Amino acid sequence: MGFVVAVDGPAASGKGTIAARLGAAFGLPVLDTGLLYRAVGVLCERAGHDPGDGAAAATVAAALSAEQLGDPALRTRRAGELASRVAVHPAVRAALLDLQRAFARQESGAVLDGRDIGTVICPQAPAKLYVTATPEVRAERRWKQLAAQGEAADYAEVLADTRRRDARDGGRETAPMACAADAILLDTTEMTIEHAADAARRIVEAARARWEASKASP
Ligand code: C5P
Fold first, then answer.
1. Where would a tag sit more exposed on the chain, N or C end, judged by fewer CB atoms within 10 A?
2. By the 8 A CB rule, do 42 and 73 touch?
3. For the segment 115-174, what is each residue's pLDDT rounded down to a tens digit?
4. Contact (CB, 8 A) for 13 and 138
5. Residue 81, class by beta-carbon neighbours within 10 Å (0-12 exposed, 13-18 middle, 19+ buried)?
6. Which are the contacts of 49, defined by CB distance < 8 A and separation ≥ 6?
7. Quick check: CB of 37 below 6 Å from ligand 1?
8. Eight-class DSSP state of 66
9. How many angstroms does the Cα of residue 116 sit away from the middle of ligand 1?
10. How far apart are CA 158 and CA 135, in angstroms?
11. At CB < 8 A and 24+ separation, what contacts does 64-73 make?
C-alpha cells in the first residue's frame, strides 16, 4: 500500500483545505469523502426520497460515481444537512466503503478527508490528523464561505447548523466522527489557514519519514 494520509474532523475545521495542501505538497491524489455523502443526499432529494429512508439512500449510494462529485449544488448548506442525514444509515456507509478504500489503495498513496477515515476506512493509514476548532469559529468560517459563493445566511443559523451536525455526526452509531487513538490533534481555532496547513505538513513529513524507515527495516 502507498502512503495514505487520513484527515478527519468536523465541518469547517479547515480539514478540506489542509487535505488539498497536503495532496499538493506530497504529490498525492485527494478524495473529499464528504462530497460522496453530499451527493447521495442531493440525489435522494432530487429523486423525491426521504433522507430518513436508508434503503433508498443506499441504492443511490451504490450507483454513485466520481464524475457526479463536481456539481456546485453539493457545496450548499442544504447539501451539508442532507449529507449528515443520509450518513447515519449503515447501508449507505457500507455502499460507499469500496469506492473510498479503492481510492486509498492507489499505488501512489492518497489523502482522504472525512469523519471516519482514520477509524474505519483506513485504520492502517501511516499518517492521521484530526483537525478541529470551536463551533463558533467554524460557523464563522462557514458563514463567510457561504457568502463568498453567493449564499447569504444568518450567522446564528449557521452556528445552529454546525452544532446540530456535530451532534448528529458524533452521536450516530455507525462510524461516528471521532479522533482515532493514533491521530494527531490539530486545533485550528487560533490559526490562520496558512499556519494550520504548515503545521499539518510538518506532522505528515514526520509520519512519512517513520513510514519509510519502517519499510526499509527488515
Ligand atoms: O465534510 P462535509 O461537511 O462535506 O461532510 C458532509 C457530511 O457528510 C458530514 O456532516 C457527515 O455527516 C458526512 N460524512 C461522513 N463521513 C465522512 C465524510 C462526511 O459521515 N467520511
1. C
2. yes
3. 999 999 999 999 999 999 999 999 999 999 999 989 889 999 999 999 999 999 999 999
4. yes
5. middle
6. 56, 57, 60
7. yes
8. G
9. 9
10. 10
11. 64/36, 64/39, 64/40, 64/95, 64/96, 64/99, 66/99, 68/39, 68/43, 69/32, 69/35, 69/36, 69/39, 71/39, 71/42, 72/149, 73/42
The answer to whether 199 and 22 have CB atoms below 8 angstroms apart is no
pLDDT tens column, 187-196: 999 999 999 9
Q: In 3D, which of 210, 3, 214 has the Cα closest to residue 106?
A: 3
For ligand 1, whether the C-beta of 87 sits within 6 Å is: yes
Q: Is 80 in the pocket of ligand 1 (CB under 6 A)?
A: yes
Atom of ligand 1 at shortest range from CA of 165: 10
Ligand 1 centroid to Cα of residue 217, in Å, is 37
Q: Is 21 in the pocket of ligand 1 (CB under 6 A)?
A: no
Ligand 1 site, residue 34, Cβ cutoff 6 A: yes
The response to whether residue 115 sits with its C-beta less than 6 Å from ligand 1 reads: yes
Name the burial class of residue 166, with classes exposed (0-12), middle (13-18) and buried (19+) by CB atoms within 10 angstroms of its CB: middle
User: Is the CB of 15 inside a 6 Å radius of any atom of ligand 1?
Assistant: no
- The reported pTM is 0.96
| Residues whose CB is less than 8 angstroms from the CB of residue 206 and which lie 6 or more positions away in sequence, other chains included | none
Q: Where are the alpha helices (DSSP H) in 105-185?
A: 135-148, 155-171
Q: What is the CA radius of gyration of the chain?
A: 17
